Amino acid sequence: MGELSSQTNDFRLSNGRQIYVLGYYLPNFALHLGSFRLNVFAILTKYRVEFLLGLWMTLKLCLFIWPIGIFVGTLLGIAGARWKIVVGIPSKFASFTLSGIPILVFLFWLHYPLQTILDVQIKPFYTAVAALSIVNVLLVSDLIRGVLKDFPKQYIMAARVCGLSTRRTIQSIQLPIIFRQVVPSLLFIQVAMLQATLFASLISVDEIFRIAQRINSEVYRPVEIYTALAVMYLAVCLPLHGLAAWLKARFTRDLSEQ
């Protein structure tokens, strides 16, 4: 059948073909893995200033996108739940329409065709903020409107039976329950918006993904550079995802009528 050579760590078949056994690969794999880790750490160390500047630009985008999306989206969701025909239906239609357009295409349309039509020139940073804020507003409004729509009516009826005023019912019953239902999903949406900021790199915004591309064009180490980029995204996004998952498990309840 064949014989094993202890000197070369290979198994030679009777037809002369040679197969390397696992003992040959494991030490080399461990060696390459250790070298890979060192290279990633070296890149993060050498280009730490560039990566931090890119991360700051990403977070700067979020400092606009998050408050606009949460505040305006909440107001739009409340208005849509209260005035279903005047506000609710148009906001639903806008959300449905935009859901059929990739974020990147929407961003490019705002950056090129719309500005050409209007004969204006807006900085790419503000174009990215506008595009992602619109997406965030519609996502948040859908969330708020859905939670308000599904809020159990028996809770409000019980409050009325107990003699609570409308204001006291909202403050003591509706707001605390809605807040616990909304916050986890709201965090998930904001993390998705943070990750979507990488599209801004394609219209020349120097966020972290564009910085990684620029570094790679200089040293051409794509494996190590984009691994370092993934590590930075994990460091920012994973705690937020974990917090949202914990809040969802801890506070979110099924409010449907039994």
State the main characteristics.
MetI-like fold; 77% helix; 2 domains; three-stranded antiparallel beta sheet; flat; mainly alpha; disordered N terminus; 3 strands; 258 residues
What do you see in this structure?
The structure is a single chain. By secondary structure, this protein is mostly helical. Helices cover 77% and strands 4% of the residues. The chain is built from ten helices and three strands, in the order βββαααααααααα. A three-stranded antiparallel β-sheet has the order 1-2-3. α2 (48-82) runs antiparallel to α3 (84-99), α4 packs across α6 (124-149) and α6 packs across α8 (166-196).
Fold topology:
Blueprint: E1 2-5, E2 10-13, E3 18-20, H1 22-46, H2 48-82, H3 84-99, H4 103-111, H5 113-118, H6 124-149, H7 153-161, H8 166-196, H9 208-219, H10 222-251
Antiparallel strand pairs: 1-2, 2-3
**C-alpha geometry:** flat
Uncertain ranges: 1-26
Most strands sheet: 3 strands, antiparallel
Name of the top-level CATH class of the largest domain = Mainly Alpha
Q: Order of SSEs, N→C?
A: EEEHHHHHHHHHH
* Number of DSSP helical runs: 10
Q: Which strand order does the major sheet show? A: 1-2-3
**Proportion of residues in β-strands:** under 5%
- For CATH, the homologous superfamily of the largest domain is named as MetI-like
Estimate percent helicity. over 70%
Q: Give a count of the beta strands, DSSP E runs of length 2 or more.
A: 3
The end-to-end distance, rounded to whole angstroms, is 70 Å
Which fold name fills CATH's third level, the topology of the largest domain?
MetI-like fold
Count of the separate structural domains: 2
Computed Rg: 27 Å
The appropriate CATH architecture of the largest domain is Orthogonal Bundle
Mean pLDDT over the full residue set = 83
Overall SS class = mainly alpha
